[in-house]
Amino acid sequence: MNKIVFVEDDPEVGALIAAYLGKHDIDVIVEPRGDCAEAVILRENPELVLLDIMLPGKDGMTLCRDLRSQWQGPIVLLTSLDSDMNHILSLEMGASDYILKTTPPAVLLARLRLHLRQHAANTTPAAQQNTLTPHKALRFGSLSIDPVNRQVLLAGNEIVLSTADFDLLWELATHAGQIMDRDALLKNLRGVSYDGMDRSVDVAISRLRKKLLDNATEPYRIKTVRNKGYLFAPHAWEN
């Protein structure tokens, strides 16, 4: 059974979601305070953290940011705040997903299971990964991407990426030289279709470019192809 920590100060919401997920083999620990949640999460070490934004003691955005430096599992924001700015900010803070509380329970369950599956695959011991994942490290000039150890080196320096950012980079790099549209990226990484409004891929691309020392004004390593998508340039990593 998977275990998650749900940080939610509304006892009715916490109880309803815990009961629903519990029926589907997900054990839910509900913590009502944002300023106590970090200690609970680090102690329980769950497979996933579900956060409300409006919390007593510490808001969900700040908690997500503080937690990300200590804990690498999926963090999902579950909120009633339907705001593009909050959605973008949560992804910048290191969240894996942003889900509205009006989302049907079955859809919420499906998206949480997706993150749990991805997290389980990412934490498989290296020896088992060698058996299940035959991929070797990809090298493009000064850039090296190792899928087994999930390590990225640029000019010999390790680049620290979140799980979601590594998965996005791997998806782009394994299709080097090909234009990847937003719909394909979202389907491959999150199992959902691009609705024309979702900015999560754009935000993640911007974050990747910054970490990989791409030109923010005129990116040449991960290129934007207008009205089509993104292209990983395989020959742009020589220097």
Provide structural commentary.
This protein has a five-stranded parallel β-sheet, sandwiched between helices. The chain is elongated and about 55 Å long. The longest helix is centred in the middle third of the chain and has 18 residues, at 105-122. It has helices at 11-22, 34-44, 60-68, 84-92, 105-122, 126-132, 163-173, 182-190, 200-211; strands spanning 2-7, 26-31, 48-51, 75-79, 97-100, 138-140, 143-146, 151-154, 157-159, 179-180, 222-225, 229-232. It has nine helices and twelve strands. Helix 2 (34-44) packs parallel to helix 3, helix 4 (84-92) packs parallel to helix 9 and helix 7 (163-173) packs across helix 9 (200-211). A hairpin with a 3-residue loop joins strand 11 (222-225) and strand 12 (229-232). By secondary structure, it is an alpha/beta fold. 41% of the residues lie in helices and 21% in strands. It starts with a strand and ends in a 7-residue tail after the last strand.
Order of helices and strands: EHEHEHEHEHHEEEEHEHHEE
- What is the spatial order of strands in the main beta sheet? 2-1-3-4-5
What number is the mean pLDDT?
85
Number of helices: 9
Count of beta strands: 12
Shape: elongated
Q: What is the end-to-end distance?
A: 47 Å
Helix share bin = 40-55%
Report the structural category: alpha/beta
Strand content: 15-25%
